[in-house]
Amino acid sequence: MSHMNVHGSKCQCTECGKCFHRNSALMSHKLSHSGEKPFECSVCGKRFTTSSHLAVHSRIHSGQKYKCHVCGKAYSQSSSLDRHMRVHMGEKPCKCNVCDKAFSESSTLDSHMRVHTGEKPYKCHVCDNAFSESSTLDSHMRVHTGEKPYKCHVCDKAFSQSSTLGRHMTVHTGEKPYKCHVCDKAFSRSGSVSTHMRVHTGERLYKCSLCDKSFRTSGHLQTHKSLVHSNRRPYQCPHCGKQFKTNTDLKRHVRIHTGAKLYSCRHCSDSFTWPVQLKTHLLKSHSEGVWFTCDICGKKFVNHSELKLHSYQHADVKPYVCCECPKSFCTAAKLKSHQRVHSVHKQFCCGKCGKLFKDEYGVKRHFDRCSNDRLGIIGLFNPHVSK
User: Fold this and answer.
1) 220 and 328 Cβ atoms separated by less than 8 Å
2) Quick one: which H or E segment has residue 286?
3) C-alpha distances in angstroms, 281 versus 266, 274, 276, 342?
4) What SS3 class is residue 377?
5) Are 30 and 13 in contact (CB under 8 A)?
6) pLDDT on residue 65
């Protein structure tokens, strides 16, 4: 009974500390950490960790639905419909005692609290990545299985998550109905407006527990931790051997080798590898969008962030300071490049001999020499090569 401690009549999970009155309940709960879902729906194939969850789901197929009279959304339980109605009523009785954010359901508050505590009870059994929600683990597992059930009906591109498909569709429609009332910047999702507003208010709710930095979104905090405070680079490029900390960075990098052009212009047949290329094309060729112009030299930029970095050059501002030496830089990219001088980590790998290098220039210079050396060895020792 290695996974539990017995306290009187309660069985406690050693992963998250949750207690249960019955050992069978603890065993069912353990499945939420492992990601195992042994109960399958015979109608649609959806899988569940417990038989009770499957029974509740089955009501959807049997026609036992509770419908919302406002939007028509249906639920298999009346209690689920009651919770849903809070969305239309604007009721958010569950408040976070750390950042005062409010939620309509206690379960959503429980998930939100893990942003502040850093708790990640749901672990992947393949790569040991951990997540704060079981649904995020389910989505992550598709990285290993390669499953992409959500397909775009316009370009047939497939995605592992429905939310990613929804965001992708805006590439084709160009729809951005949500506008900021301060700067009129438009977004395809309402949540993006709320996050964007922190640019104007300067609000940074998410603080790093390892340094004094704070961020506007939980996603930026998690990215900061993985990029700054972790040296793990589990994702390797099959073309050049370069290693990355995130699968997203690897996918973005691979486009350099494949030349894939995922971003299509809705006005003409042109397509592009990077979103910034599409944005530049729309501005230059179709006069769609707004240029960001430098007040000092008149130079134009596609993004406000590029203009901001450019303005540092006029002001001689270098906000990015190296933590190892007194040097400072105008951009984060220049600081990152400089920090390789101090780093012992070698992220560039020679595809011929496997030798590692700190920078891309070093591996390219070595690769040419390595290729010539190996050709010389083959010519010297291979009896089939004529002299």
Assistant:
1) no
2) helix 275-286
3) 11, 11, 9, 39
4) helix
5) yes
6) 67
3-state secondary structure of 74: strand
First-to-last C-alpha distance (Å) of the chain: 71
Mean pLDDT of 241-269: 84
Identify any residues that bridge with 158 across adjacent strands, giving them in sequence order.
151
What is the C-alpha to C-alpha distance for residues 387 and 385, in angstroms, rounded to an integer? 6
- Computed from CA positions of residues 188, 189, 190, 196, in that sequence, does the dihedral angle turn out positive or negative? negative
* Token pair listed for 358: 């700190």
Q: Quick one: 383 exposed, middle or buried, by C-beta within 10 A (0-12, 13-18, 19+)?
A: exposed
| pLDDT tens digits for range 176-209 | 777 888 887 888 777 777 788 877 887 888 888 8
Q: Which structural domains are found in the chain, ordered by start?
A: 1-64 (3.30.160.60)
Give Cα separations from 139 to 56, 247, 323 (angstroms).
22, 13, 36
Rounded-to-integer distance, Cα 368 and Cα 350, Å:
10
Dihedrals phi, psi of 210, to nearest 5 degrees = -105, -15
Is residue 161 within 8 A of residue 150, CB to CB? The reply is yes
pTM: 0.31
Instruction: List alpha helices for 9-133, DSSP H.
Output: 23-34, 51-62, 78-89, 106-117
Closest CA to 91 of 77, 102, 78, 80: 102
Please state the separation of Cα 137 from the chain's center in Å: 13
Residue 119, both tokens: 């708790």
